[in-house]
């Protein structure tokens, strides 16, 4: 277990009202007290904040005016002594305080090391630690709600219960095999293993069924806006983002590159990509943009296909319908404030059962209908973040898929009449896979890799 004291700046880099330098470890309080002019921090009560000044130990001059929070173990985030020095938010001020703290024997923390210590000291499990990062990166209220519930341990509690059920079943079967009291003990053990495997399997499947929604809430839908040049793609981007991120002109081919932005639509986070208009062109720069657009198309979860109400349906439009066949898309017929030249019957025929939304982005008409169509495409209406336990982390989803396969192998072995000690291998494997989600059976290298992805000071 770590015994040194770590420190880092825990607020974003840049100018602000305040900045915080955080310390955690056995010498957090004494190190701060060495350079703090004010109350004796060694004598103050836990979870109190104190006004004073940080003194430069070399010049003996005042380096910064601060408020110092003292929190004593074990009732802290890391379960170690923690000190937070609140100073002015300028880069010079906060870096000067950090340098002084480092000069007193603290070590600069690695990315995510505060959260890692909370995990190593049993304050949180691995899934809760990952939820800390999800909370920081949340793009919508619903994504934040899912992360908060995971931080509270909702997923952890469910996984621990499933693991306990499997462990008790394995233990019970082993006892029956080692100390048989009845002639039909093997049949009883088979029935018990079969029943419990089916129960756990059902819950794993239910978690995976909502995992797609959870992953979308966490990472956002990769959403591409496509269409021929000058149909209103950039106008749609600006309408959804509610900012002028994309250049809007009457000149076809204005968008030459990929423009990416996050936007929340009815609580659904979209990673919105405005692509260059897809058409045949001799312009070298525009041609590169078109090729990038085609690549984005392949990687998208949702496609917003924009057509021009004031233009005839071209061969290029029909090719785009073929290109997105089998994908999730919404057709947007834009510029309905102008004269109709588009063959709507043909559009409905090509779109088949896909949603079609009529808009005039200039007049901001049809935007609500579009937002509703986006939400219904993936969530059939409102998203429930209240009672459901969402799995949103890719690592968790992969482990659950492997656990599901191990349980299927176990149940197949039982149906084939394989010996219980053989079936038990798959059940134990399931127990181990579920344990990796919460960190009970995770390797040290995996733990190091996960926490290295955290931001510095967290």
From TrEMBL:
Q: What keywords are assigned to this protein?
A: Cytoplasm, GTP-binding, Hydrolase, Magnesium, Metal-binding, Nucleotide-binding, Potassium, tRNA processing
Which residues does the record give as GTP binding sites?
Answer: 230-235, 249-255, 274-277
Q: Name one GO biological process term.
A: tRNA methylation
Which GO CC annotations does the UniProt entry carry? Answer: cytosol
Give the location in the cell: Cytoplasm
Q: Does the keyword tRNA processing apply?
A: yes
Quote the record's cofactor note: Binds 1 potassium ion per subunit.
Q: Where does Mg(2+) bind?
A: 234, 255
- Looking at the record, the residues that make up the TrmE-type G domain are 220-379
Positions binding (6S)-5-formyl-5,6,7,8-tetrahydrofolate in this chain are: 22, 84, 123, 458
The Swiss-Prot or TrEMBL record describes its family as follows: Belongs to the TRAFAC class TrmE-Era-EngA-EngB-Septin-like GTPase superfamily. TrmE GTPase family.
**Assembly with partners or alone:** Homodimer. Heterotetramer of two MnmE and two MnmG subunits.
This protein's name: tRNA modification GTPase MnmE
């Amino acid at each position: 277990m770590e015994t040194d004291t770590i420190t880092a700046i825990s607020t974003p880099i840049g100018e602000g009202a305040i900045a915080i330098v955080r310390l955690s470890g056995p010498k957090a309080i004494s190190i701060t007290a060495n350079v703090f002019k004010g109350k004796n921090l060694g004598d103050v009560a836990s979870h109190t904040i104190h006004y004073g000044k940080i003194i430069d130990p070399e010049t003996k001059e005042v380096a910064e005016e601060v408020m110092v929070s003292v929190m004593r173990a074990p009732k802290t985030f890391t379960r170690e002594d923690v000190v937070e020095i609140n100073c002015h938010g300028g880069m010079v001020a906060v870096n000067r305080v950090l340098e002084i703290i480092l000069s007193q024997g603290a070590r600069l923390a690695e990315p995510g090391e505060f959260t890692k210590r909370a995990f190593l000291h049993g304050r949180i499990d691995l899934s809760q630690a990952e939820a800390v990062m999800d909370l920081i990166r949340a793009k919508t209220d619903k994504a934040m709600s899912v992360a908060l519930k995971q931080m509270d341990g909702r997923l952890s509690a469910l996984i621990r219960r499933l693991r306990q059920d499997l462990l008790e079943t394995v233990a019970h079967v082993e006892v029956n095999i080692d100390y048989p009291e009845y002639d039909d003990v093997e049949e009883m053990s088979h029935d018990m293993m079969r029943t419990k495997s089916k129960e756990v399997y059902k819950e794993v499947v239910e978690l995976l069924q909502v995992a797609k929604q959870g992953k979308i809430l966490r990472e956002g839908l990769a959403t591409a806006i496509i269409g021929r040049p000058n149909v209103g793609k950039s106008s749609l981007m600006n309408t959804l983002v509610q900012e002028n991120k994309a250049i809007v002109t009457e000149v076809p081919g204005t968008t030459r590159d990929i423009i990416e932005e996050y936007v929340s639509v009815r609580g659904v986070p979209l990673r919105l990509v405005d692509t260059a208009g897809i058409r045949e062109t001799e312009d070298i720069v525009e041609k590169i943009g078109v090729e990038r657009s085609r690549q984005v198309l392949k990687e998208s979860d949702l496609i917003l296909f924009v057509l021009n109400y004031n233009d005839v349906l071209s061969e290029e439009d029909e090719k785009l319908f073929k290109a997105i066949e089998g994908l999730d898309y919404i057709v947007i017929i834009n510029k309905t404030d102008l004269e109709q030249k588009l063959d709507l019957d043909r559009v409905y025929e090509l779109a088949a059962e896909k949603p079609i939304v009529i808009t005039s982005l200039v007049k901001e008409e049809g935007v609500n209908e579009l937002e509703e169509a986006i939400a219904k495409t993936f969530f059939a209406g409102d998203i429930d973040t209240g009672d459901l336990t969402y799995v949103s982390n890719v690592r968790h989803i992969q482990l659950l898929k492997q656990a599901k396969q191990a349980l299927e192998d176990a149940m197949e072995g039982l149906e084939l009449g394989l010996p219980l000690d053989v079936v038990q291998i798959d059940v134990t494997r399931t127990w181990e896979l579920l344990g990796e989600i919460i960190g009970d059976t995770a390797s040290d290298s995996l733990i190091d890799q996960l926490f290295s992805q955290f931001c510095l000071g967290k």
